[in-house]
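Box 3.1 A note on notation
Throughout this textbook, protein chains are presented in two layers. The first layer is the amino acid sequence; the second is a token string describing backbone geometry. Keep the layers aligned when reading.
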Amino acid sequence: MVQMLSERKTFETQDCTSLSFQESGQGQPLVLVHGWSQSAEQFRYQFDAFSASHRVIAFDQRGHGRSSRPDYGYRVSRLAMDLRELLVGLDLDDVAILGHSMGCSVIWCYLDLFGEDRLTKLILVDQPPCLTINPVWGAQEVADTGALFNPSAAADLCNALNADESGEFSNSLMASMLTSGCPSELRDWMMGCNRQMRRSHAAALMRNHANIDWRDTITRIRLPTLAIGAEASLAPAPCMRWVARQIPGARLEMFGAEEGGSHFMFVENPEKFNRLVLSFLS
């Protein structure tokens, strides 16, 4: 069921969760899937540029942004089901879909569960195939996956998030995802977007997200794909190169550190980011 909410609309999932979304433009649908503890608001530098040629839908995933905050469902599989229900409910077909960070994992889970149904192009932005290192992996496998944590560090991260009542830990985590040259007002806004999600929910979702290995799904992708990474991102650049190599015909674009090449390159350098995406879509 779709309802209006001020300048936005809401969509209710089958498990009674209200997802807030906005849409604009006409033409081929382009769905924007934000990352962990972020929101659709962070695509504000993309919305107008993309909606000039596409029907753009940007939504807040459950517990994020303006969507409702149930005490259940903080798993990538449930987020993929939410995405599926949204596409079906809005009768979107021939969809180009862009995922940032954990948004890529949501897309990979969608492909794992539902195949290519309703999708036609993928834009995968700066997400390692797996976040947690298996101790038996060699150096090359760690580099390919881009894994950031050993198992105990991943658990420590989630526990610190759950206890982060002041938001100080979350702010430091967000700061690590931006370049040192990011303007302070932009940095503060990004941190505010991050803290919209309840820390207990953020911890629960990260606990699930960090422990999934998507490599066997990535190697089966056959849709036209644009992979975007950044040399100064906390997501190691080699892992996005690995992702692009696994997908036949995939196009790879990397942002240099001097180009605002952080995990949030689409915020720090929207002009280049928008140009690359629109070129791929056309």
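Confidence is low (pLDDT under 50) at residues 2-6. The chain is about 40% helix and 20% strand.
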